[in-house]
Design a protein that fits this description.
The structure is a single chain. By secondary structure, this protein is α/β, with parallel strands linked by helices. About 40% of the residues lie in helices and about 20% in strands. It has 16 helices and 22 strands. Strands 15-17-18-13-12-19-20 form a seven-stranded mixed beta sheet, sandwiched between helices. The radius of gyration is 23 Å and the shape is globular. Bound molecules: adenosine-5'-diphosphate. Adenosine-5'-diphosphate binds next to helix 8 and helix 9.
C-alpha cells in the first residue's frame, strides 16, 4: 500500500515562504511502515541551502504581513487551524499511525491534542501583556513582550503532532516566524500540518517546513546565525550539539531531552486505582515517551503484591499492528528495535524477569515488534535503572521509607517527571518539594499529556518549559522602556 495516494500534499516537497518546492537533494528518504517493514512512500531530503532559504523566508514574514498581524488575528488563525485539524483528525491519525506505528487510538488522541495546543495558544495570543513599573518621579516605565523573530523547531519522531503543536503553536501565538525540522522517521504529519496552515490562511513564511536528516538540516538550523531561538526535543547527545551551537550564536534554547521517570508507590496506595496507570504510563507509545514512567519504586511492605499484580497486567498486554489497536504497536524503526532489544538482553543476563507481554502470532514478520518486559528487584544503580531505554521496559525497585524513596528517585542524571502514589496528604506535599523534576503527579500520571501543564526537566532532562502558559514567555522576549517626561 502506497500512502501517497491518500495525501492532500506531496511529501517529496518542502514548504518555504508559502510555496511548496523541491528540496536541495534529489535523493529522497524512504518512509517505512513500522507495522510491516514495507516502504510505503518517500519524503524529500532538504539541504543546508534549503534551511538558509527558509530562514530568509521567515525573516521576510517578520518584516511583512505576518509581522503586522495583530495578536487577536494570530489567535484567530490558530483557532482556524485547530478546527481544520479536528475536521481532519481521522486522516491525520491514520497518517501518523502508519508513519510511526502508533495504535490508531493513540494517534487519534495525538491529533486531538494538536488541535488543543492550537486552541490553547490561539486563545492566549492576545493575553500576554507587558507591565508598567513604578519608578522615579517624572518617568513612565513599561515592558513589552516581543517575539524573538525567527525560531527553529527540531522535533523527534515519537509524538510529532503533539510536539509540533506545543512548539509551533506557542511560537506563532507570540508572533515568531518558525522553521520546523521534523524527524526523518516521522515527517508526514508536519507536512500535512503545513498544508493545513496554508489553507487556513497563515501568511507566507510564518511557518516553513524543511524535511531531511538531522546531521544536515537539523545542524544547519541549530547553527544558523539568523535563528533567534531554538527549541529542541530529542536525545541528550543531540541536545548537547544544539546547546553548543546556541552558545556560539548566543541565542536562547529550550531542550527537552527525556528521562528515567519514577512512579513512587507507598504502602497506603489505592492499588486498584493506581494499577492501570503504573503500567500504562510506560506502555503508551510502546515506551517511546520522554516522560514514560520507566522506574517503579515500591515500598517494601507492598512490594510483592504490586509485583504480582503488575505481572498480571503484563500477562495481558498484547503487541500488534497499529491499525488493530492493540495495547502496544511496533517501535518506530529497526534501529529503535535493536536499541531496546539490546537493553532487554542485557537485563536478562542478571535481572529477574517478573513478567512479559506477548507479540500477536499474526503480527507481520517485518514489523518492529518488541514484547514488553517487567524486571523485578533491580538495584537503583543498574544500567536499566539509570539509562533511558525508550521502549516498553520497566524496572521495579523496592524502597524502605520516604528518605529512601527520594534518594532513589533523585538518583539518576535525569529529572523530568515523577508520580507519587500515597493517600497521606503531608507526604504528598513533602515529596512534591523534594523531587528534582519538572513535573510531579500525585495519585495520577500524565505521560505525554497535559496541554495546559508547563513541562520540561532538570539535569540531563534539559531546561526551559514548553506547554501551558509558561511556554509563551519562553517564545518571547521582554523589552523595558524607560521614558523620562518630567
Ligand atoms: P533519535 O536518535 O532518537 O532519532 P535525535 O535526538 O537524534 O534522536 O533526533 C531528534 C531530532 O533531532 C530529529 O529531528 C533529528 O533529525 C534531529 N537531529 C539529529 N542530529 C542532529 C544534529 N546534529 N543537529 C540538529 N538536529 C539533529
Amino acid at each position: 500500500m502506497k500512502i501517497a495516494n491518500s495525501l492532500w500534499f506531496d511529501p517529496t516537497m518542502i514548504y518555504i515562504g508559502g510555496q511548496w518546492r523541491k528540496p536541495g537533494h534529489a535523493d529522497t528518504i524512504p518512509v517505512e511502515n513500522p507495522s510491516t517493514g514495507e516502504v510505503i512512500g518517500e519524503i524529500g531530503q532538504g539541504s543546508a541551502a534549503d534551511v538558509d532559504a527558509a530562514v530568509v523566508a521567515a525573516e521576510a514574514a517578520m518584516e511583512g504581513e505576518w509581522g503586522r498581524t495583530p495578536a487577536v488575528e494570530r489567535g484567530r488563525l490558530l483557532a482556524r487551524m485547530a478546527q481544520m485539524v479536528l475536521s481532519r483528525a481521522e486522516e491525520l491519525a491514520y497518517l501518523e499511525s502508519t508513519d510511526v506505528g502508533k495504535p490508531m487510538k493513540q494517534a487519534q488522541a495525538d491529533a486531538v491534542n494538536l488541535a488543543r495546543y492550537l486552541e490553547f495558544y490561539g486563545g492566549a495570543a492576545d493575553k500576554v501583556h507587558g507591565t508598567t513599573i513604578p519608578y522615579q518621579e517624572g518617568f513612565t516605565v513599561y515592558t513589552l513582550r516581543e517575539p524573538h523573530g525567527v525560531t527553529g523547531h527540531i522535533i523527534p519522531w515519537n509524538y510529532p503532532m503533539q510536539i509540533l503543536g506545543r512548539s509551533i503553536g506557542a511560537a506563532l501565538a507570540m508572533g515568531n516566524a518558525c522553521v520546523l525540522k521534523p524527524a526523518e522517521d516521522a515527517s508526514l504529519s508536519s507536512l500535512a500540518f503545513a498544508a493545513i496552515a496554508a489553507e487556513a490562511g497563515l501568511p507566507a513564511g510564518a511557518l516553513n517546513v524543511v524535511t531531511g536528516y538531522g546531521a544536515e538540516v537539523g545542524a544547519a538550523l541549530s547553527t544558523h546565525p539568523d535563528v533567534h531561538h531554538v527549541s529542541f526535543t530529542g536525545s541528550v547527545a543531540t541536545g548537547r550539539h544544539i546547546q553548543e551551537a546556541a552558545a556560539k550564536n548566543v541565542v536562547p534554547v529550550t531542550l527537552e531531552l527525556g528521562g528515567k521517570s519514577p512512579h513512587i508507590v507507598f504502602d497506603d496506595v489505592d492499588l486498584d486505582a493506581a494499577l492501570p496507570t503504573l503500567v500504562g504510563a510506560c506502555m503508551q507509545a510502546a515506551g517511546q515517551t520522554c516522560s514514560a514512567a520507566s522506574r517503579v519504586l515500591v515500598q517494601r511492605g507492598i512490594y510483592e503484591e504490586v509485583r504480582r499484580r503488575m505481572a498480571e497486567v503484563y500477562g495481558g498486554l498484547v503487541v500488534g499492528p497499529a491499525p488493530d489497536n492493540c495495547d502496544l504497536g511496533p517501535l518506530v524503526s529497526k534501529k529503535q528495535k535493536d536499541i531496546v532489544s539490546k537493553f532487554i538482553e542485557l537485563g536478562k543476563q542478571d535481572l529477574t524477569v517478573a513478567a512479559e507481554g506477548k507479540i500477536r502470532d499474526d503480527a507481520p514478520a517485518g514489523g518492529n515488534y518488541v514484547a514488553p518486559v517487567l524486571f523485578a528487584d533491580v538495584s537503583p544503580d543498574h544500567r536499566l535503572a539509570q539509562e533511558e531505554i525508550f521502549g516498553p521496559v520497566q524496572v521495579m525497585i523496592p524502597f524502605e521509607d520516604e528518605a529512601d524513596a527520594i534518594r532513589i528517585a533523585n538518583g539518576t542524571e535525569y529529572g523530568l517527571v515523577a508520580g507519587v502514589w500515597t493517600r497521606d496528604g503531608g507526604r504528598q506535599m513533602r515529596m512534591a518539594r523534594k523531587l528534582n523534576v519538572g513535573q510531579v503527579f500525585i495519585n495520577n500520571y500524565g505521560a505525554g499529556g497535559g496541554v495546559e501543564l508547563p513541562f520540561g526537566g532538570v539535569g540531563k532532562s534539559g531546561h526551559g518549559r514548553e506547554k501551558g502558559f509558561e511556554a509563551l514567555y519562553g517564545f518571547s522576549r521582554l523589552k523595558t522602556v524607560t521614558a523620562q517626561h518630567g
